[in-house]
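User: Predict structure, ligand uridine-diphosphate-N-acetylglucosamine.
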Amino acid sequence: MPIKVILVAGARPNFMKIAPLWLEIKHFPSYFEPVMLHTGQHYDYEMSNVFFEDLDLPKPDYFLGVGSGTHGEQTARIMTEFEKVLQEEHPNLVIVFGDVNSTLGCSITAKKLLIPVAHVEAGLRSFDMTMPEEINRKVTDAISDILFTPSRDGDENLIYEGVERKQIHFVGNIMIDSLISILRRIDQPYEDKVLKQFGLQKENFVLVTLHRPSNVDNKDNLWNIMNFLSALSLRIPILFPVHPRTKNNINGFGKGFASNGEFKIVEPLRYKEFITLEKCPMFVLTDSGGIQEETTYFNVPCLTLRPNTERPITITLGTNELVSMGNIQEKVELILSKNWKEGSIPELWDGKTAKRIVDILEGMEI
Ligand code: UD1
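Assistant: Predicted complex:
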C-alpha cells in the first residue's frame, strides 16, 4: 500500500518549493499517494496561478480559499479548513514548506491529529522574534518529526534547540531545483523579449522587490525608500515589481508616487519572467528570503534591506549583504563602481534536493 502524503502550499514562495518534490514523488506511485493542497493564503492570479503554470503543477486536489486577514484570522481559517481535509483523507504524512502562516497552521493541525509532519527548509533562523516568519519557523520545527535543512547552519540551529540529530536531514535548497529547471526553458530569444518588454538592458538596471511589513507598512519608512529609489533611478533604470501588500500601502498612504528617472513600478511578474530578469541586473535590492538565495546562485550582487537574515550563508558564501537606509548609498556606490564580492554556490544547491528527500522518505517507516 502506498503511503498517503499531503503536500501543503499557501503563499507565493511555497510554490517553487513544492513543485520539485511533487514532480519527484509522482515518479513513485507504488510508494507514495500524493495529495496537493493549496490553502489559498495567496489567491491573486499573479501571486498564485501563474506559478502553477510556470512550474508545471496541476490544479491542487484541495483549495481551501482562506484568503487574507490578520495573522490570527488567517491562521485560524487555515487550521479549521485543514482539519476537515485531514479528517477526510487520513494521510500518513503531511509535508510543509518554508515559513509562512500556512506552514505554521497546517503543521500544528496535523500534529494535534497525531499525523507525522515533515518540514522542508527547516532550521533557518533570523533570531528576530518580531518577524512573523521566525515564529512560524520555530514552532514548525519544534513539532515536526522530519526536518529537511537547506544548509548546515540549519542543522546547527536545530541541534542547539534540542532537536534529535536523527530527525535532521541536510538535503540542500529545494528552491534551487525549480530555478535550475526553469533556466532550461529560458533561451536567448526569450531573455531578449523580456528585457525589451520592460525597456531594460542586461547588467544595466536594478531589480527591486520589497514586501516586509517592517519596510512597507510604515509610511515614513516606505516614503524614505521610495525617495531613495527615485533618486537612484536618475542614474540607473529601476524595475520594481510590486507585491500586493506594498501596492496597497503605496496607494493607501495618501499620495501617488512619481519619479523623474527611469523608475518602473509594475505588477508582480511570473516566475519565468522574474528569473530571466534576476539573472542579469547590475544588482538586486530586496527584503525577500528566497531572492537572497537566488542571487547567490546567480552570483548577482544583492542588497537586503533588513537588519538580519535567516539565510546567513548568502552573506558568508554568496553575494548578499544586509543594508539599512543609513548605509545603502555607500553599498550602491561600491556595486556601481564594480567593487563587489564574488560569491560561490553553497553545498547541495544543485537541483537534486527533491530526489534526496524522496530517497530519505522511501527508506523510512512512516
Ligand atoms: C506572506 C508571508 C511572507 C512571504 C510573503 C511572500 C506570512 C506570515 N507571510 O506575506 O513570509 O514572504 O507572503 O509574498 O505568511 N494580497 C493580495 N493578493 C494575494 C495575497 C495577498 O492582494 O494574492 C494582499 C492582501 O491585502 C493581504 C496582503 O497582501 O492582506 C498581505 O498578504 P499576506 O498573505 O497576509 O502576507 P504577505 O505580506 O504576502
